[in-house]
Amino acid sequence: MGDLELPLRIDSDRLASRLPVLEVLALAMAPYTRAPERITAEDAELMQMLGRVREALEDIYGQRFTFQGETRERSGPISEQHYETVAGEVTGLEAEEAIRGSATSVIRAKHVEASGKVVGMRAPVIDGRS
What we know:
This protein has about 130 residues and is an alpha/beta fold. It has helices at about 10-35, 45-60; strands spanning about 65, 75-85, 90-95, 100, 105-110, 115-120, 125.
């Protein structure tokens, strides 16, 4: 399952970009609130919608949400960044005290200039990194 980095923090730009899709998904799932007996793991359409909701929430909060029994990466903070060129310093995850749990930092750059620096994680204590 893993550990979430609490408190959860919303990335307002990512929320704004994901909100239209979340609103459509909420409308599409509204019938299930009136008839919860329809909710089953065999409902492929519902599972697909829930997967899209989770994907959006993971992007908005910058954390992976994994439930007990699932075969996917553990819950925890994630940072994924893509750059054409890095000329200064880029840091994926940074904390004043510690980065704990199943933290993941992925930084991709096509070119890093001589003055550029790429740091995946920075904290006095880094535990459970990937």
